[in-house]
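Forum > Structural Biology > Help requests

Title: Can anyone predict the 3D structure of Polar amino acid transport system substrate-binding protein?

Hi all, first post here. I have the sequence for Polar amino acid transport system substrate-binding protein but no way to get a structure on my laptop. I'd be grateful if someone could post the structure tokens.
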Amino acid sequence: MATALALSLSACGSDEPEAAEGEPELSSAGQLTVCTDAPYKPFEYPDDSSPTGYTGFDMEIVDAIAAGMDLEVVVKDAGFDGLQSGASLAAGQCDMVASAMTITEEREENLDFSEPYYDSKQSLLAAAGGDVTSIDDLDGRKVGVQQGTTGAQYAKDNVPEGAELVSFPSDAELYAALNSGGVAAVLQDLPVNLDHTDDGAYEIVEEYDTDESYGFAVKEEGSEDLLEAINENLQAIRDSGEYDTIYEKYFSDS
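Reply #1:
Sure, ran it for you. Structure tokens for Polar amino acid transport system substrate-binding protein below:
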């Protein structure tokens, strides 16, 4: 597998890691610190059996990339607004963001993205057999979205004028609102909504092709070598077939 990384401490004896020329600068020597907004199943969610405490499609791809860089993964849970705005990276909370984040021109003003690693759609989740069968049925109703997401923007642009958008910080609160009747439907990424159809109480009533692709994000300045290593190792796991194995594990029924 591609690039193995080794960080060295400075000659003056400082505890702060100092990257050798051409190697990524990391917040902690030997560790790739990753921010994510969990739970967002199937991409990232808590798992006590995982060394990082998290698993999911994103988390397994990151683990494979980090293995190619000889780095230990450390995961930090953080709010999506701070991740998509670049605030978390700018504050030094982590080295990269892996949070099912769509690459958009607006986000690219504050972030640099890896090569795309997953193509997604938007979707509308509502009660199975209920009276919400399309986005047009939301007139006069409340629809739940996650704040700062492309799903929230799609809903803003496409729901009927009489619909009320209700924003929540994460999928956990979104789904709870749907269960309690606080919203009539949830508009967000298709794979995440699909995960809520398993018990048969809810169904995907519409899908929307939005030409979205997810990317891993790093800060705009000072992470050029890290971004190059991420892309190099992402390509390496595609070439080896490891990416396909992880993809089939999470999306074989999608």
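The two ends are 29 Å apart (CA to CA). The chain has two domains: 31-117+215-252, 120-212.
Shout if anything looks off.
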